[in-house]
Amino acid sequence: MSELHDAILEGDAKAAVVAAEQALQAGADPLDLVQSHMVPAMDEVGRRFECEEYFVPELLLAARAMKGALALIRPRLAAGGAEPSARVVIGTVKGDLHDIGKNIVASMLEGGGFEVIDLGADVPPEKFVAAVKEKSADLVCLSALLTVTMLSMKTTIEALRAAGVREQVKVLVGGAPVTQHFADQIGADGYGENAAAAVRLARRLVAAA
Amino acid sequence: MRLKLIGCEILFRELCAAIARSGNRVDVEFLPKGLHDVGKEEMRQSLQEAVDRVDASQYEVILLGYALCGNGMAGLTARSIPLVIPRAHDCIALLMGSHERYQEYFENHPGVYFRSIGWVERGQNLEQLSLETTRKTSGVGGSLEELIARYGEENGRYLYEEFTRYTRSYRQLTFIETGLEPDKSFERQAREEAARRGWRFEKIRGDLGLFERLLAGRWNEQEFLVVPPGWRVAARYDEDIMVAEPPS
Questions:
Q1: Mean pLDDT, to the nearest integer, of A34-39?
Q2: Measured distance CA(B179)–CA(B183) in Å, rounded
Q3: Interface test with B, best of A148, A154, A155 (most B CBs within 10 A)
Q4: Within a domain: residue B14?
Q5: Which member of A111, B53, B167, B222 has the greatest number of CB atoms within 10 A?
């Protein structure tokens, strides 16, 4: 296992940046660094989270280490013509200000190789629609913490439909009160129970598209 | 009627006041507010255990001093006697006296944090509804000192920043005064909290009507869900909020 892989797994942001720098200087292929070291590290982070060896703090620290290294590597990737696996628009729906869960999912998606456009919290449906159009997104992730605001997920999906972009994206929903049943009721494409499950689901939906 | 009330401790004083005025004979069990902090599945299980503990031969109906509570109520099943639950999303709607009033307030006052007598004396943490789901099992919500001790100075500060950033979206603290307050100390504490966080303070009048009608047995269909024996609670994302579903 490489130093870069281990630094991400350990959530050591400084070590991850140093390891990425050294690897690039030594002539490593940037795409290979991402695919063979960083994405597997984040997958392992997700696995440890799901079997409760890691908790939210470890998840956030690993994601930060990943992002630090990615910031160095991304310009080289772009120069080499590599494209991110898919583009995700993510946000907490209108009326809801809670963003911790959404931020964790955004970090894990980014760590999983997605390009993430984070619209923040209390995001009105029209803002999701505009971002989907502007960025040609493949996925839309909606978060809510309150049952009062869960209905905003439904109105957001309806707005995507009314704007004629519903068919071009897959919609994922999540948040503490959200259930698979609710996701089915409002016509979402999937429900992620936690951040690791969301990344798995996002990959599956993109692969199937 | 002989009624058994299972209530959340956050509503301790409001429910006790309603019991005192009720024409029915009421026994009560209060459950800890911490039930909201363990996730919807675990909360429902704990509520179900409380329902199942009730000696059904002693009562005609079990009342729930709860709301949908982050879906913690979804799936709760009535055994041999009916359950009655106020149709509301959470205790703030109960304290305001109606779902409609809460909805209107919520929509017109973005970024509001609520306090009541129970939240002042029993609700220790900022997370009101279910964010603490993750608190105990995941480390979200620890103090800055705890996070630094566990993850080191730099990481601890980063995590604290991540976990508390959303609180900066709040702009106002609203104290719901029900008239049960023995003195001004609860309002004063709420005012101090608002000042400490740099939020606007507002006091609104609460309404104990829902509690009173729950305990009095005046369960009109608009305000209360009656779950027949064997049926279970299901969440609805419309004006019904909750409905009863037959056994599948």
A1: 90
A2: 10
A3: A148
A4: yes
A5: A111
A67 and B CB contact within 8 Å: no
Q: Where are the beta strands (DSSP E) in B95-183?
A: 112-115, 172-177
Flag whether B227 is in a domain.
yes
Total domains in chain B come to 1
Interface check A121 vs B, CB under 8 A: yes
Over range A106-131, report the average pLDDT.
93
CB contact under 8 A, B158 and A185: no
In a domain, B51, yes or no: yes
Structure tokens at B148: 């630094």
A64 touches chain B (CB under 8 A): yes
Sheet holding B25-31, edge to edge: B25-31, B2-8, B61-65, B83-86, B224-227
Q: Domain residue spans in chain A?
A: 3-79, 87-208
Residue B98 belongs to some domain of the structure? no
Q: Which residues of chain B have pLDDT under 50?
A: 126-134, 136
Task: State chain B's mean pLDDT as an integer.
Answer: 90
**Quick one: average pLDDT of A161-173?**
96
Q: Which helix (H) or strand (E) holds A44?
A: helix A39-50
Q: Which domain holds residue B6?
A: 2-93+208-245
Strands A87-92 and A115-118: parallel
Residue B55 tokens read as 């000696």
What distances in angstroms separate CA B140 from CA B62, B96, B143, B168, one per listed residue? 35, 30, 9, 17
Query: Which pLDDT value is given to residue B41?
Result: 86
CATH, domain range A87-208 = 3.40.50.280
Q: Which residues pair with B113 in a beta bridge?
A: B173
* ipTM > 0.95 for the complex: no
Nearest CA to CA, how far is B139 from chain A (Å)? Answer: 6
pLDDT of residue B132: 44
| Sheet-wide strand order for B172-177 | B112-115, B172-177, B200-205
Q: B232-235 and B242-245: which strand pairing?
A: antiparallel
Check: CATH 1.10.1240.10 for A3-79?
yes
Q: What is the pTM of this model?
A: 0.82
Chain A's closest residue to B41, CA to CA, is: A177
Joined together, the tokens standing for residue A61 give: 């620290």
Q: Do residue B140 and residue A57 have CB atoms under 8 angstroms apart? A: yes
Q: Which residues 6+ apart lie within 8 Å of A42 measured at CB?
A: A8, A62, A63, A66, A108, A111, A112
